Amino acid sequence: QVQLVESGGGLVQAGGSLSLSCAASGRTVAMGWFRQVPGKEREFVAAITSNSGYTYYGDAVKGRFTISRDTAKNTVYLQMNGLKPGDTAVYYCAAKSRGYVSSIQLPVGAQYGYWGQGTQVTVSS
């Protein structure tokens, strides 16, 4: 019962910044961002709980990326700074619609029942 629409993405030089948005059409208890390179496993990027705004980051992006939410717009954002070529991937927004939110489960993709269409982020060197 949740639909996610992603926006943003694009091409940026190393060291630059980019911002992604994900608008949810239904209720969520948590939202997150994952990324994937063709032929490689999906990687957790960041997550945020819908009620308290608790955030959790993957080690590879900690200190460079910031996840935030606008409750009025039911939208989550990912501000990416200090981008590296290794950040190049398709970025997917994910949402958990109901249930108890456990902090240790936030990085687990299987906890999210809804996924956005994905948006390409390319960082050139």
Structural features:
single chain; 125 residues; mainly beta; seven-stranded mixed β-sheet; four-stranded antiparallel β-sheet; 11 strands
- H and E order: EEEEEEEEEEE
Low-confidence stretches are none
Global mean pLDDT: 96
Radius of gyration: 13 Å
| Helix/sheet category | mainly beta
What is the strand content?
Answer: over 45%
Q: How would you characterize the largest beta sheet?
A: 7 strands, mixed
Any idea what the shape is? globular
Number of helices: 0
- Give the N-to-C terminal Cα separation: 41 Å
Helix content: under 10%
Number of strands: 11
Q: What can be said about this structure in brief?
A:
Helices cover 0% and strands 49% of the residues. The chain contains no helices and 11 strands. It is globular.
Protein architecture, described:
The chain has 125 residues and is an all-beta fold. Helix content is 0%, strand content 49%. A hairpin with a 6-residue loop joins strand 4 and strand 5 (43-49). The model has no long low-confidence stretch (mean pLDDT 96).
